[in-house]
Amino acid sequence: MPPLDDASSASLRRTLRRLPALAGALPRLEPQSLPDDPVTAFLRWLREALDAGVPEPHAVTVSTADAAGRPSSRVVVLKDVDDQGRWVFATDLRSQKARDLEVNAAVALSFYWQPLGRQVRVAGTAVRLDADECAADFLARSPASRAAAFATRPGEPLAGVDVLHEAMRAASARVEAEPDAVLPDWVLYAVVPEEVELWQGSGDRAHQRVVYRRDGAGWSRRLVWP
Ligand SMILES: Cc1cc2nc3c(=O)[nH]c(=O)nc-3n(C[C@H](O)[C@H](O)[C@H](O)COP(=O)(O)O)c2cc1C
């Protein structure tokens, strides 16, 4: 295989074209066997991802947009699907995603579970959880994660890696000295779903898409073309 830093874009295109996608034995989806509500369906698929040994199945891409509609995406970890059927993640209020959500609550999540050829998309509105819940989540984090959260200044220019390590050392000492200290900028967002799509890839490209849409107090469900 040619090196990927080869100047020839034709060679890059060839390399990319030859990469397999949706290879291997993938499960078949029987849409009628899916539950009526997407939260139960998601939890079933998450269980199957865990059982199949999918690496880090709780890693999820979160997409937000700023006040001008400029989108951005990044990976976070899923913290919960709560008893109100909301997908919960944690972040720093100073981060771009949080700044976006504070002015534009529209949000989309995307999971990809490669060994199963499955994608789940959730679109809806993000609500910030109350300070007590955010604090409890912060305190449940490992000391190293708490120190990292105290040390960071999300998105600000960093003069050098040594500055980061020094800030981490100072923050670790603080966490040890003050184990109950909470970062006030630590926030949880719950995504209230409007639409959830389960996508099952297939080697023969007859992929299946099932879209759930909120319908009054319940959900409607339909198949759509892939
Ligand atoms: C596997 C993985 C898990 C991550 N988990 C989180 C997380 O739970 N919360 C978070 O704020 N950032 C998390 N990040 C870092 C984000 O992807 C991102 O770099 C950071 O939050 C800044 O994003 P923003 O400036 O767009 O808000 C994670 C990154 C990876 C690769």
UniProtKB/TrEMBL annotation:
NCBIfam families: PRK05679.1. GO terms for biological process: pyridoxine biosynthetic process. GO terms for molecular function: FMN binding; pyridoxamine phosphate oxidase activity. Keywords: Flavoprotein, FMN, Oxidoreductase. It comes from Actinotalea ferrariae CF5-4. FMN binds at residues 74-79, 97, 119, 199, 209. This is Oxidase. InterPro entries: Pyridox_Oxase, Pyridox_Oxase_N, Pyridoxamine_oxidase_dimer_C, Split_barrel_FMN-bd. PANTHER family: PYRIDOXINE-5'-PHOSPHATE OXIDASE, PYRIDOXINE-5-PHOSPHATE OXIDASE. Pfam families: PNP_phzG_C, PNPOx_N. Binds 1 FMN per subunit. Its cofactor is FMN. It comes from the Bacteria. Residues 47-153 form the Pyridoxamine 5'-phosphate oxidase N-terminal domain. Residues 186-226 form the Pyridoxine 5'-phosphate oxidase dimerisation C-terminal domain. Belongs to the pyridoxamine 5'-phosphate oxidase family.
